[in-house]
Design a protein that fits this description.
Blueprint: H1 3-18, H2 23-26, H3 47-67, E1 76-80, H4 87-94, E2 99-103, H5 114-126, H6 156-162, H7 165-180, E3 191-195, H8 201-204, E4 211-217, H9 226-236, E5 237-248, H10 266-273, H11 285-292, E6 296-305, E7 329-338
Parallel strand pairs: 1-2, 1-4, 2-3, 4-5
Antiparallel strand pairs: 5-7, 6-7
């Protein structure tokens, strides 16, 4: 293992220890990223930057679904781990969905100004803006062969209907209803719902087999019970519904090397994690695929590779049987259809 990694390890143990200490003491120690406290708390960069980022997330997903013949009905859509806003959900509603269901463990989607983001997102759609590419968002996945506005999917005729004043008014009112904490307005044809915790069978009971498409962007790496999450997604999806995930397998600053989190034994990892509300689950790409295939048929599987910085002897015993390519996979993109 790199000497640099060995020297840095005390810093990462201190991050976990800090979660057990009072704020007055822990502020003098290295800290985990604030969102792992379970309250969101990412800085609001403003409606333009947030909207463009999530416009890119959704349009890339939409384009990939279309390219691989997996873009079917999207009347009802769900999103695992919306984060501090429902920006992706807003883009999905502007693309034709009439019902958006946020699927979360902690209720943070109210942290940003969703109406501001709606206004900016409308301008992106009205302007037929190209999909922000890797020059603007170098960390975004998946890559596309073309970043042109997806006009074969969102035709002029369709956009005229989707961007009508009446429909936008319905979306705006649905956002206000969600922000107020009230239940969905039965008079509004647009519905926004928010299920927390979404893996609780009682919480999702009324939504079972109603969702056409579930997406997650950099969320599944933070799920503690991955089998339960995929089982819950399968219960929520309509027959032959689609789940599409972009998964980040990097260490999230839990180690000095990008894949150094695979080197911790279980006891050391518990210390590094500390009392965070959620962290990273250390599920590899092949582990996700194996679990998915129990309930889904994989339509598209893409790995994004990076140089493995760990020697075989550095890897914790519990992970040594994994395929070597798992330790080179920094991100993955998977489309799967419910069996």
């Amino acid at each position: 293992m790199h000497l640099r990694e060995k020297l840095k390890k005390p810093k990462f143990f201190l991050k976990g220890i800090a979660t057990y200490l009072p704020a007055g003491i822990s502020r003098f120690l290295p800290r985990h990223q604030r969102q792992f406290e379970g309250r969101g708390l990412r800085a609001y960069a403003g409606k333009s930057q947030v909207a463009r980022g999530y416009y890119s997330v959704w349009m890339r997903t939409l384009s990939m679904l279309h390219e691989h013949g997996a873009l079917g009905r999207i009347e009802t859509v769900g999103e695992i781990g919306p984060g501090d806003s429902i920006a992706t959900g807003i883009a999905m509603l502007l693309s034709g969905a009439n019902r958006y269901i946020g699927l979360d463990i902690v209720p943070t989607a109210h942290n940003f100004n969703n109406e501001e983001i709606l206004d900016e997102m409308i301008e992106l759609f009205k302007g037929r803006e190209p999909i922000p590419d890797n020059a603007e968002y170098p960390k975004s996945r998946p890559y596309l062969s073309s970043y042109a506005f997806p006009s074969p999917i969102l035709t002029e005729e369709k956009l005229a209907e989707l961007l009508s004043d009446e429909r936008i008014g319905h979306i705006r009112q649905a956002i206000r209803t969600m922000q107020s904490g009230k239940g969905a307005d039965p008079q509004n044809p647009i519905r926004i719902e928010y299920l927390v915790p979404w893996t609780d069978a009682e919480v999702i009971r009324d939504c079972e087999q109603t969702i056409d498409l579930i997406i997650s962007s950099a969320a599944m790496e933070h799920v503690d019970d991955v089998p339960l999450a995929y089982a819950s997604a399968a219960r929520l999806l309509a027959p032959e519904g689609i789940i599409v995930s972009t998964i980040d397998y990097k260490g999230h600053d839990s180690a000095g090397l990008w894949n150094g989190h695979w080197a911790y034994g279980d006891a050391s990892w518990r210390l590094v994690r500390g009392k965070t509300s959620y962290f990273i689950n250390r599920w590899s790409h092949s582990m996700h695929l194996e679990e998915l295939r129990k309930l889904f048929t994989v339509v598209k599987d893409v790995r994004f590779l990076r140089e493995n910085q760990l020697a075989p002897e550095d890897i914790a015993l519990r992970f040594r049987a994994l395929p070597a390519t798992d330790f080179e996979t920094s991100e993955g993109f998977i489309i799967a259809r419910k069996k």
